[in-house]
Amino acid sequence: NAGVTQTPKFRVLKTGQSMTLLCAQDMNHEYMYWYRQDPGMGLRLIHYSVGEGTTAKGEVPDGYNVSRLKKQNFLLGLESAAPSQTSVYFCASSRDGGRYNEQFFGPGTRLTVL
Amino acid sequence: SQKIEQNSEALNIQEGKTATLTCNYTNYSPAYLQWYRQDPGRGPVFLLLIRENEKEKRKERLKVTFDTTLKQSLFHITASQPADSATYLCALYNAGNMLTFGGGTRLMVKP
């Protein structure tokens, strides 16, 4: 099993450009999450999904959109990138929303917006 | 507001010693607390979960304690090794039922 995979690993954008980050999991997990990690800020939840076809806002959703058309995939979109969106983005999944469940993380995407 | 605090300063210890990392929280009433390890350039990896009615949990050289009165969890690594060098994150579920992470503490174990 590959677990949670993310593409791309690195990306450089110019301000105003758009892009989509792809997350895939092969564990048949219901819940999927997108986080961003900035120095000194820890992991912050952007959006999450509790199942195929559903999405919800997390702590820092502004400037991002998501879609979960298939259970195994969770896409994060930036419509008009800004320098403040320079960060490392992590996707994660969990079996369900139970508080006893661990989250499984992908390797991350390092995004730089110039 | 809800806060999770971990020492942002790196913890440097000598190989073979016990490392102790602290996680303090305010305005949470967690039933569960999780610890993760994160290596540079990688995603966090789950290590341990402790329930509020468990005072202590062990896994190999790892030990976690959970004091809901002090609102604190301690994470211990005994007989530490250079391979234990990483950033360790604690995490709690917030009022919105989402996992919230502390900023992490970097551990450096010197040979």
Provide a compact summary of the structure.
Chain A has no helices and 11 strands.
Can you give a write-up of this model?
The complex is a heterodimer of chains A (114) and B (111). Chain A is built from no helices and eleven strands. With 114 residues, chain A is mostly beta strands. In chain A, strand 4 (31-38) and strand 5 (42-49) form a beta hairpin. The radius of gyration of chain A is 13 Å and the shape is globular. The mean pLDDT of chain A is 95. Chain B has strands spanning 3-6, 11-14, 19-26, 32-38, 45-51, 56-59, 62-67, 72-77, 86-93, 99-101, 105-110. In chain B, a hairpin with a 5-residue loop joins strand 9 (86-93) and strand 10. By secondary structure, chain B is an all-beta fold. Chain B has no helices and eleven strands. The A-B interface holds A 4, 40-43, 45, 48, 58-59, 90, 92, 97, 99-100, 102-108 and B 4, 8, 31-32, 34, 41-46, 49, 51, 89, 93, 97-104.
Structural class of chain B: mainly beta
The overall strand count of chain B is 11
Largest sheet of chain A: 7 strands, mixed
SSE string of chain B = EEEEEEEEEEE
Total helices of chain B: the number is 0
| Shape call of chain A | globular
Largest interface: A-B, 21 and 23 residues
Q: In total, how many beta strands of chain A?
A: 11
Low-pLDDT regions of chain A:
none
Roughly how many Å is the radius of gyration of chain A?
Answer: 13 Å
Helix content of chain A: under 10%
Q: What is the arithmetic mean of pLDDT of chain A?
A: 95
Radius of gyration of chain B over all CA atoms, rounded: 13 Å
Uncertain ranges of chain B: none
Shape of chain B: globular
List the main descriptive attributes of the protein structure presented here:
heterodimer; A: about 110 residues; mainly beta; 4-stranded antiparallel beta sheet; about 0% helix; about 50% strand; globular; B: about 110 residues; 6-stranded mixed beta sheet; 5-stranded antiparallel beta sheet
